[in-house]
User: What shape does this take?
Amino acid sequence: YWETFTIPYVANSNVISCLMDIQANPVNSKGEEVTPVVWESNCLEEVCGACTMLINGKVHQSCSALVDQLKKPIRLEPMSKFPVIRDLTVDRSRMFESLKKVQAWVTADGYHDLGPGDRLAQKHQEIAYTLSECMTCGCCVEACPQYSSGNNFLGAAAISQSRLFNMHPTAKNIADERLDTLMQEGGIADCGNAQNCVEACPKSIPLTESIAEMGRQVSGKLWRNIFRA
Assistant: This one.
């Protein structure tokens, strides 16, 4: 359903501030008192990804979407690739489950006695930092035509995080396990190379480069598996 609200203009305001105004005074444009709109937010500085939604049909964080830069009237919708909890709030659990599948973490157990780990080369540090900016906001998968409720595609974010942890000095110890996951149904072969993800990413993460790199690693492992058989 749709609900229309009219709120006073405030210069330099963002979409979140508009939602806060509605929450404080939940009266629609017809003058009817309604239930306050439900949305999710946290950091309010485009770091957590919680406030991601469709704004005038395009996926964006509502904390960094400035009213002055948007066409009026502003149309807000929940992301379409995730189950809607209520109003503008969606359940992004699938993205976090994908991170679990690719084991997007540093394996620390059993390594304490070995002392400090290896240092990353400067060029690898720069790549790793860029990849680490992912906030699992959902922009990439919202824009992806391959990602839907009808398949198990991991999505660009999880694939890119596989690249990040496969280059980590300690986390790369289970690199083959991540590659095994990417070789399965829903893995890297399900990417259709639309490249919408890299255009939608608010952090300008080189997602297509990550997909290409992980495709190279998966191909290498596939050939190793063949020759070992």
